[in-house]
Amino acid sequence: MQGMARDVALSLVIVILLLPLFASTVSASSGSMVTAGSGGVAVIGLPGHQGDTISFSSLIHNDGDSSGTVFLLLNSSNQTYAGEEIVIEPGSSREVVTPFVLSEVGLIDVYWEIISNDSLVSENLSGHSQISIEEPQELYVDILDSSWTSDDGLEISFRTILDVGRSRDVSIELIGNSGSNSQLLQSFESFLTPGIRHFSLSLGSPSISSVSIRLTPIDWISHDSASDEIIVSPPEISGTIEIISISPEIPSAGDIVSIDVLISNTGTDKINSGIVRLISSASGIVLAEMNSPSLQTNSDLSITFSIESWPSGNPVDIRAEWYSDFLISEFDNSVISNNVVSSSSSEIPWFAISIGILTGILVSVAMRSASRGSKKSVSMKKTKKVDKNENIDISSEEKREVNCPQCNRALLIPKTYSGKARCAPPCSTEFQVSPEETMKNDEYEIDDIEFDEDSSNEENESDLLVSMSKNDLLECPSCGQMLKVPISKRPATARCPACGSEFEALVG
User: Fold this and answer.
1) Does residue 491 have a cis bond before it (omega within 30 degrees)?
2) Overall pTM surpassing 0.70 (yes/no)
3) Lower CB density within 10 Å: C or N end of the chain?
4) Is 100 among the domain residues?
5) Interatomic CA distance for residues 506 and 508, integer angstroms
6) Triad 489, 490, 493: Cα angle to 5°
7) Over residues 51-74, mean pLDDT
């Protein structure tokens, strides 16, 4: 018994003596994780706003003889976050990081701990940190201005505003709208710092009626969506032209006339350089033209033209035209001239006067032919005299047509008339006409015809000059001068004091 007791006691002594050796052997063959540096954890990404992701980081050193793995475990408000497992070689130090999402606003406690499944971990590699979470940052966009020209297209100026806090990545989209249709005009990403930033973009010439700008946060949140919209319209090229003065105010044919023209840009885009012309509306002849410079919007320019020879007529209709790449504007003006003397400010009824003159000529010829019948005789072989008036009366009822050599207007005159004829106003050209043989032969053979001296060409010409009116005033058919011949004294022969012409004054 005593021998057995000694053996047991000896074994215990041996075990006790060898136990430190075994403990030293186990410790040397595993990793030993301790803090490196000042210890604890560092919080990366503060100040933080709701919705942001921050990081907790700790620097760990492996003080053991073999490699080991560790990770950082976070816990807050019953939510757990585990970071990536990191391998640390013996004698090395590594950073262990775990991301943490800020889902609340205010002051929160976060508990942290370094965990290893194959190594010893120092007791001071755990603890807690308190952090403050701010409200989400505000993001705004304001469209400042837009311009749309033919040369530069549509340009948009806008600004972004980021609230105080962290710098942010945003996506910027510019969208064109036309009714219910929309198109993406431009899209890009931008890194914004807190404060205001200005942008200016060219968008070409799309077929749209409005532009909207939308900003979208990238990997962060904002309270409201940032957007703005502006109405746009394509450039409008329009202008006006106006004749503002004429000197002299009542010109005569052949005068040198000065005309002031005003051109104005009333559109939303500049008008390129071009030509301004003055044209006779009646003939289409260009009376004068000048080059016009480019004209900015809401501006005007006065141009003075000099017409070397004013055209004939009354009134004279002229047209001012302004051309650039196309016809910008035109302006018509009717100018009263000194060509005809008129007793009334109203428009002269040339057509009615012409018809009246022709009717008066026919009536006058018939009356004078009847009154001279006794002075004109014809001797015949059969000793029978025939009045020449009979042939004239028969002929005077028939007309023939002649054309004015100046304006080619068709005029009706008696077939037997020979002498000068005058075209109806406003032409009034005098020209010579020859008679047309229309003598009628009955059963009598005419040997000879004798006329008195008062049947000469001069008398025929005076027979043609006739003027008619329905009041005491009427015009001289030669010069247009207004004369007073009482209706009670008509028909009568009147002499014009201005030109000396004699004419028949009739009622009609």
Assistant:
1) yes
2) no
3) N
4) yes
5) 6
6) 100
7) 94
